[in-house]
Amino acid sequence: MSHSASGRLKSAALDLETAMDQVLTVWRDGKAREFHERQIVPMLRAVEVGGMAMDEIASIVGQMKRECGPPRDDIL
After folding, report:
1. Is 5 helix (H, G, I), strand (E, B) or coil?
2. What is the mean pLDDT, run by run of 10 residues, along the chain of 76 residues?
3. Taking a C-beta distance cutoff of 8 angstroms, is the pair 50, 9 a contact?
């Protein structure tokens, strides 16, 4: 598994989803569904979008590093 911040975030979201699935095997009333839909689902969606944004930023930073080269000691 990736050690990047995005990878850790995605892994934590999977852990949360797995734990919630286990909880829902015993907590089966309307409040369980409401909690899942109002709290867990939006959080997982936000994590997915945030992870994609983090991956995109990492890609852009990598491109910048490749195009600009390593830092130079003779500047300033």
Report:
1. helix
2. 77 95 94 95 95 92 88 68
3. yes
